[in-house]
Specification:
By secondary structure, the protein is an alpha+beta fold. Helices cover 51% and strands 7% of the residues. The chain has nine helices and five strands. The chain has a five-stranded mixed β-sheet with strand order 1-5-4-2-3. The chain starts with a strand and ends in an 11-residue tail after the last helix.
Length: 217
């Protein structure tokens, strides 16, 4: 997605990152930004009372939203990740050329069919056409794919962490938390270990500190 420039003044000193602590899209953006080492002005958003400044930069009103010092606005999490890694990718999170197509495929699947199944599973009372178990089964197709990948290597694209793991991880976390007892007993042992490792990582811990909601002055 092309980046957009908006003539909004005054210009910022640091990039501004509007975020919401529990949003999986915002989580993966925060993890990429933190990993890159880029300093940002982090602004926690109360979704029921979104700051006017964020809505001015990005009228669609979803997080994350990154505003660069030249007022370039990046308001898609995958674009924010790409931006962060273009600034600094110290441990080579970007996939090798021969793995890029697979990486895109996994993230695309996560962001489309799996995310739809996740939302219906988590909020199944809003979607009475099927049961929670039916929606969970739809999501299990992707869980099975990931578990298969992890049966061959430590991470989704091989033996080292990549941007694909970071892009997918917050959504698997959310799926697991809908019914933790079920997930812990499900036959996705490699996926469970992968998830637990990321949950216990210093990187994830560092981006989950609670912060008071931002209020425009």
């Amino acid at each position: 997605m092309p980046l957009s420039k908006k003539a909004i003044s005054p210009k910022t000193v640091l990039p501004i990152l509007y975020s919401f602590r529990r949003c999986p899209y915002a989580m993966r953006a925060r993890m990429a930004v933190k990993y890159s080492g880029v300093a940002v002005d982090m602004r926690e958003v109360l979704l029921s009372n979104k700051p006017a400044s964020m809505l001015t930069y990005s009228p669609k009103g979803t997080v994350p939203v990154l505003v660069l010092p030249d007022n370039t606005v990046i308001d898609e999490s995958r674009d924010i990740i790409d931006w962060a890694l273009s600034v600094n990718d110290p441990m080579d999170w970007l996939p090798a050329e021969n793995m890029r197509a697979l990486g895109r495929q996994l993230i695309d699947e996560n962001d489309s069919r799996f995310k739809e199944a996740l939302d219906k599973y988590k909020y199944h009372v809003r979607f009475p056409e099927h049961s929670a178990e039916d929606y969970r089964a739809q999501g299990e197709v992707f869980l099975s794919t990931l578990n298969g990948r992890l049966s061959e290597a430590r991470y989704l694209l091989g033996d080292k962490l990549s941007v694909v793991d970071i892009a997918v991880f917050p959504f698997i976390r959310q799926f697991a938390h809908v019914d933790k007892t079920w997930f812990e007993q499900a036959p996705y042992f490699r996926l469970q270990d992968w998830l637990e490792g990321l949950l216990q990582s210093d990187l994830f811990s560092s981006i989950m500190h609670k912060q008071a909601p931002w209020k425009d002055v």
